[in-house]
Amino acid sequence: MTAFPRIGTARLTLRAFEPADAAAVQRLAGAPEVADFTLLPHPYADGMAEAWIVACRTAQARVEQVAFAIERVSDAAFVGAIGLALDPCRPSAKFGYWVGTPYWGRGYATEAASAVVAFGFETLGLERIWAPRFRANAASARVLEKVGFVHEGSRRRFVVERSRAETIEQHGCLRWEYFARVAQCGFGTAPSAAAVRAESGS
Question: Which residues of 118-147 are buried (b: 16+ CB within 10 A; e: fewer)?
Fold first, then answer.
């Protein structure tokens, strides 16, 4: 990937991760409340954030994923991470995100998710975007519903990262469903061209 998209929403900027983000990633991702609903490591040890950012940039260069840092416009605060893991064999992607606990309950996840889903369908031309979540993560279910995802099913599996069994709920959105939703209510349309620009790096 020679250029990385930069997306602006009403309150947020979605941008490439930089090495300078490592301290904020470690601080926010290291909260047990965040780790409990994700596959993030816990405890989040020194050096993990730096290695993860390098891995993100490498995967993006190989067109394997698009990982955005979520930044608040008003004060440039780092809020969390969001992105798409691209399927190498078909126009599909796995969607995921996490938001730091100081920023829960403010609608930032829904705002960022709407922009990334729009980017996936309107810019990347994906045919399907899907997202897994732990059954206990009801807040994530509400975010996915708000941006047009449909519950597709449940499955049980042993989660190695958590050393326990979990029920995984899967949600998905098809390209035609996304555009039907846009045509009906205008919700979730991609930002204007002025709000999406390329930045070097990645």
Answer: bbbbbeeebebbbbbbbeebeebbebbebb
Q: What is the DSSP string of 34-76?
A: HHTTSS--SS--TTHHHHHHHHHHHHHHTTSEEEEEEEETTT-
Coil vs helix vs strand at 129 = strand
User: Cα–Cα distance between 123 and 107 in angstroms, integer?
Assistant: 24
Give the distance between the most distant pair of CA atoms in the chain: 47
Chain segment 39-74, per-residue pLDDT in tens:
898 899 999 999 999 999 999 999 999 999 999 999
Segment 133-164, tens digit of pLDDT: 999 999 999 999 999 999 999 999 998 887 88
Q: Read off the tokens for 189.
A: 């349309």
| CATH architecture, domain defined by 4-199 | 3-Layer(aba) Sandwich (3.40)
Phi-psi region of 19 (alpha: psi -120 to 50; beta: other; left: phi over 0): alpha
Which sequence spans correspond to the domains of the chain?
4-199
**pTM of the model as a whole:** 0.89
In one letter, which amino acid is 54? V
Place of tokens 């090495």: 19
